[in-house]
């Protein structure tokens, strides 16, 4: 049964990607370029060169964490849409603490403090919708969506006023101290933050697949009323899952601040944002930790390879945005669900053919 479910999830994840690449290939043909050459550049430069692959892993680090933050709640049918806001809040205050720490402080201690601040901020942000959902039965999707925009405006106010670095030519906070930064490995952009993300991934894999909480997540996702009837305290589990999701989001923001950005800007998370990218990754990975890891690396490869397309072909790098949009579109279609059993249908057709021919002869 598990093999069948895995096969269905695989089809629902791989087929949207293939269809998106096929339609993207048609667009590339209309431009007058060879799709195979373009995709060769896109994936070859980001996955099949040493430096490109390490850079891909670097950009995948926050995506792994935001993907897990979405997956752990979505699997329980709890829709935490506030990952983007939790990430930004964690990043902002991790950056502020990173600028305030003494330069003489031990680098390991400085980094741990900044990461802890990011995690704490993510948890505090997630607690508001968690309490409203668990104890007041307020729709968490609406609350978290609205809080995202409120948080973006609050951080914009703080970045342009209270914490602004006036020595810079644009709106940003001061650069964090060097002892709070994750140093790069070799000539690539990869830092120790990737290994932090992998460590968290291993923990989440054990929690979601090998622990009592993982079973409870599945039970709540399938039937929360039945889970409550069996003695499970669903409201407490909702609180725990939202706290875990907020912690992962805050950690992603803090790590991205310390390994890539080093200061908070109004475009810190990019467009559409690392939190929203995490939602696509969770859907592409089928809310499975291993699926999220593979999807995050693949999605990061698309973003890393996009910069090389302009250099080596006449195809604009916006083709990657088209492919990403098509993946989202096709992910909305469940090509195979739990009620689909192709093997049984084929067997029925085979057995029904002789019966129909016998009845016709009679």
TrEMBL record:
Matches recorded under InterPro entries: ABC_transp_permease
Transmembrane feature ranges: 12-32, 52-74, 86-103, 109-132, 190-208, 238-258, 279-299
Pfam family for this entry, one: BPD_transp_2
Membrane topology field: Multi-pass membrane protein
Domain of life of the native organism: Bacteria
Keyword field: Cell membrane, Membrane, Transmembrane, Transmembrane helix
Subcellular location per the Swiss-Prot or TrEMBL entry: Cell membrane
PANTHER family attached to this UniProt entry: ABC TRANSPORTER, PERMEASE PROTEIN, GUANOSINE ABC TRANSPORTER PERMEASE PROTEIN NUPP
Name of this chain's protein: ABC transporter permease
């Amino acid at each position: 049964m598990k093999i069948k479910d895995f096969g269905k999830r695989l089809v629902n994840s791989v087929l949207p990607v293939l269809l998106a690449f096929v339609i993207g290939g048609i667009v590339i043909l209309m431009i007058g370029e060879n799709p195979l050459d373009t995709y060769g550049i896109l994936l070859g430069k980001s996955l099949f060169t040493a430096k490109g692959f390490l850079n891909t892993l670097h950009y995948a680090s926050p995506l792994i964490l935001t993907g897990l933050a979405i997956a752990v709640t979505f699997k329980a049918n709890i829709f935490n849409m506030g990952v983007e806001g939790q990430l930004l809040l964690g990043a902002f205050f991790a950056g502020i603490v990173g600028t305030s720490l003494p330069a003489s402080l031990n680098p390991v201690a400085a980094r741990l403090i900044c990461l802890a601040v990011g995690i704490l901020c993510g948890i505090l942000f997630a607690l508001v919708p968690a309490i409203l959902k668990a104890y007041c039965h307020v729709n968490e999707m609406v609350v978290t969506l609205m809080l995202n925009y409120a948080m973006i405006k609050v951080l914009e106010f703080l970045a342009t006023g209270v914490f602004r670095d006036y020595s810079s030519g644009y709106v940003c906070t001061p650069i964090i101290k060097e002892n709070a930064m994750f140093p790069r490995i070799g000539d690539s952009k990869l830092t120790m933050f990737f290994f932090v993300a992998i460590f968290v991934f291993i923990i989440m894999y054990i929690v979601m697949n090998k622990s009592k909480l993982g079973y409870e997540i599945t039970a709540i996702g399938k039937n929360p009323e039945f889970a409550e009837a069996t003695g499970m305290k669903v409201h407490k589990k909702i609180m725990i899952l939202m706290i875990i999701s907020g912690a992962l989001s805050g950690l992603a923001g803090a790590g991205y601040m310390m390994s890539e950005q080093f200061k908070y800007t109004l475009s810190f998370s990019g467009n559409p944002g690392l939190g929203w990218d995490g939602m696509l990754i969770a859907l592409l990975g089928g809310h499975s930790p291993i699926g999220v890891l593979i999807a995050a690396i693949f999605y990061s490869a698309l973003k890393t390879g996009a910069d090389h397309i302009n250099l080596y072909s006449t195809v604009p790098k916006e083709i990657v945005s088209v492919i990403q949009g098509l993946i989202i579109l096709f992910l909305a279609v469940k090509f195979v669900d739990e009620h689909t059993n192709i093997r049984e249908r084929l067997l029925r057709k085979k057995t029904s053919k002789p019966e129909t021919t016998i009845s016709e002869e009679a």
